[in-house]
Amino acid sequence: MTTETSSATFVDSRSLRLATFYVGDMLLGLEIDQVQEINRCLDVTTVPHAPNWVRGVINLRGDVVTVIDLRTVLGLERGTVTKDSRNLIVNLSGELVGLCVDRIADIITVAKDDVIPPPSNISVVDQKFFSGVATIEQDIVAVLNLNEALETSN
């Protein structure tokens, strides 16, 4: 495992580059090419009668982006937005969606062979949300299955 700060680093087909972040105490990762940008959880406009997993919408340079509370989607208690909270803006089938997370961690590279299927006891969160887990230093990063997480919230 390598922690990286440069986005120009070449990664071969045997490796995954993950943008990592925390939701509660869980360290999660998304493949870096799924993340369009990261911004602060500011100026979210609430939407009346929206499901509880929708934090609201933001104006992102003229585009209206729905912000999803990832804690709620994963079955955790809705968190409070803090100075460390961030929106991971992802492009899902041409639609921009913001994922509100508790805080950002690092960009890491892991060997695909080091990513194993999630154990059945990964946590109270349903394992269908994860495509795998990898051990990094003294922690475990769970690779988020973005399609499943967002499909479940719909």
Structure, described:
The protein has helices at 70-73, 146-153, and strands at 2-4, 15-23, 26-31, 35-40, 54-60, 63-69, 86-92, 95-101, 103-111, 130-136, 139-144. The protein is mainly β. The chain has one domain (2-153): CheA-289, Domain 4 (OB fold (Dihydrolipoamide Acetyltransferase, E2P)). The strands form 2 sheets. A 6-stranded mixed sheet has the order 1-9-2-3-11-10. It has a 5-stranded mixed sheet with strand order 4-7-8-6-5. The longest helix has 8 residues, at 146-153. The protein is globular. Residues 1-10 have low confidence and may be disordered. Residues 15-154 form the CheW-like domain. This is Chemotaxis protein CheW. One of its GO terms (biological process) is signal transduction. Pfam families: CheW (PF01584).
- Domain count: 1
Structure class: mainly beta
Helix content: under 10%
**How far is the first residue's CA from the last residue's CA?**
34 Å
Topology-level CATH name:
OB fold (Dihydrolipoamide Acetyltransferase, E2P)
InterPro entries: CheW, CheW-like_dom_sf, CheW-lke_dom
Domain CheW-like: 15-154
Protein name: Chemotaxis protein CheW
